[in-house]
Known about the structure:
This protein is α+β, with helices and mostly antiparallel strands. Helices cover 52% and strands 15% of the residues. The protein has one domain. The chain has helices at residues 9-59, 67-72, and strands spanning 83-84, 87-93, 100-106. The radius of gyration is 25 Å and the shape is rod-shaped.
Amino acid sequence: MKNNDGFSLLELLIVVAIILIIATIGIPSLLRSRQAANESAAVANLRNLNSAEVGYSSSHAGVYGSIGDLVSAGLLDNRYQGVMSGYLMTVELSTNALDYTAAATARAL
Length: 109
């Protein structure tokens, strides 16, 4: 009499199908949660950028600075000059530097 130990091909196919179904459900959810975390980090980084601009303005006669100025003044980390959590932080100054616009633009990681 033949003694068969192990799994049949059908059993292995069923296990693979179950794993694929779970992955199909789980991976998009994981990607959405990662995107939400990156968006939250970008909002927090913009708030830090705003606080740094207020500090820079108070010590420079009401004039706002670029990200490079804020880093040089020690108000921001130099990571703000690159992509952070999938977002590039930018600051556009008005012609007289009395106003600024800060933005976080999505970039690929």
